[in-house]
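Hey L., structure's done. Input below.
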Amino acid sequence: MVARGGATMRAAPGALSAPRLAPPLVWLGLVLALAGAGLAGYLAVENLQGEAGVCTLVHGCDTVQNSRYGKIFGVPVSVPGFALYVALAAGAAVWLAGRTPAREWATLGGFAGALGGFAFSMYLTAIEAFVLEAWCIYCIVSAALMTALAVVWTLVLTLQRRAAPAAAG
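Output:
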């Protein structure tokens, strides 16, 4: 039910409401984050051993990963990337298992983490395109996953914010 101008209106039968739509989105976020953790985990192990991983489809993984942009404070970017994907997966798990306060914090953390990861991925993608002129398939896939995660957590945050006034009233 939705109150508008003093009148109460019912949602259409079968309509997707915020409480019904958010859980599948969070499950999608969990799957995407686990896929990202797998990708970044593999690459982190390879990078920490001085390797670039098996490069397919595009050629430039070595160039990208061994450039000055491939490390943060001497640590391969795949390592904090792995940590972020694990944190996003943990946030999704907390959201799925939790109640309102835990869900609110998990949503804010998921949104902030995914948005930060998306921004950093776009920065690195621009470096690949305009500075290095080389492409890394792992970076491309990770950027796509982080973009999807940013969309998912933005939708979850939006749905949660829309549902909050209805739950309070």
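Confidence is low (pLDDT under 50) at residues 6-15. The domain at 21-163 is CATH 1.20.1440.130 (de novo design (two linked rop proteins)).

-- N.
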